[in-house]
Amino acid sequence: MSFLRNPASILGALNLSAIAGSTYHLRSHHIYNLGEFEARLDEIEGTLRGHIGLIEESLDRLEGKATEADRGKKMDEYYGKRGRDDKKTK
Q1: Who has greater pLDDT, 33 or 50?
Q2: What span, in angstroms and rounded, lies between the C-alpha atoms of 41 and 77?
Q3: Cβ-count burial of 53 within 10 angstroms (0-12 exposed, 13-18 middle, 19+ buried)?
Q4: Contacts of 46 (CB under 8 A, 6+ apart)
């Protein structure tokens, strides 16, 4: 137990424990931020898919291919295909 009496070894042990604690803290924040980022990307992806559906429906209407009954179908179809829905839950 003579190494505990040496001030340099005590400071070294405190330094290592501080580094380990801060690393664990930063890792937990990083994992949380990755989850938040993925949720935001899923939301953006759904929004973009919905807009693509609206644009395609507008093009169909301009070209005269769409009927009134088709309105909103493509948007719902694209929005429903979001990547988040295909992923398996843990």
Answers
A1: 33
A2: 19
A3: buried
A4: 79, 82, 84
